[in-house]
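Risk mitigation, structural track. In case the binding assays with magnesium ion fail to produce interpretable data, a predicted complex structure has been prepared as a fallback.
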Amino acid sequence: MRLLGIELVRVATRFRVAIGTAAGVHRTRTLLFVRIVAEEAQGWGECAALDEGTAVDPGVDEIAAAASTRGVLRLLDATAARGGELPGETEVAQLFGSSPADRMLAAVFEMAVADADLRLAGRSLAQALDVGPGYETLPVGAAVGIPPGHDVGILRQQVAQAVDDGAARVRVKIEPGWDAEPVAALRADHPDLVIQVDANGSYRMEDAPLVARLADSDVLCIEQPLPPADLVASAEFARRIPLPVCLDESLSSPRRVRDALRNEACQVACLKPGRLGGLRATRLAHAACTEAGVPVFVGGFFEAGLGRASNLALAARLAQDAVGLVGDLSDPVTYLEQDPCGYPGVQHGWVRAPDAPGVGTGPDETVLARLGAERRWFPVT
Ligand SMILES: [Mg+2]
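Fallback model:
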């Protein structure tokens, strides 16, 4: 494809309900999109970065700055080095380094190039990933934050709504002091619901007896109980509690996934393509987990519809490769006031990977204009 230019589009919406986590509260959701414009086709990518970064994930301001400098420059340079031909989707990840910001850039630029490639070829991402019959429709999981004021009533309402919306499992944010009691209340409301809890790194080794109480509520696993850096500590913690440990923030690259598996630091893995560096990086990480017998799920960053569609097709492919757990694949309209993109309808708790050409539905120009999107165009010179 003959590249004409790259556009960065930034637009803000809000969460319907503030998402409280042990690591902070998300209220605003700034969305950063990359648009690739070539003579033959155009493609959109959605960046996963949230407004507030974490210990391992850069925030959206940092990624937007990096995208407008080295991100765009690397793709323009790589195109110039190919005589004006846009690199293919499989080449994009190698344009970026291994820092957290570079992996997020790799993921969003890879998505945009893949979207353009697929539109030109008339194929969906699920088709390109060889998702076979029966695997293209997946059950939907939802994530629920720590409610304002630690109000158990609000939590119960939110989980009831997620279950009404068809969620096959609910991932509930917890932190020290907000754990066994609220989760026991949810278990009483929903005796058969698959419940996971996510601590976002807020416990310490000595909290193992506290965390162990969650086993009474038949919790599937606890996600990221300890801070992300120390995999040996995570392995020790896992030996001390009677429920499986899932790692999320610790799994910041395919290499870290392999290290975690080698240290037996987790029994479940939450793989986030935005953090790991995109589709190919996530499939590498998944292959390592499969070999180790560790089930995975595709985790989300509360994306809009395009990022979710990419995760959906990928989750379908991973489900085909090995039995996995329910991913964060709920419809963005359930947590964002505005989704400028579209997402396939969730029906009876199931969602089908898009089969139209491309990764998914890119942002709608009218909605972008209404929300006052900031746009920057970088032409090929
Ligand atoms: Mg998590």
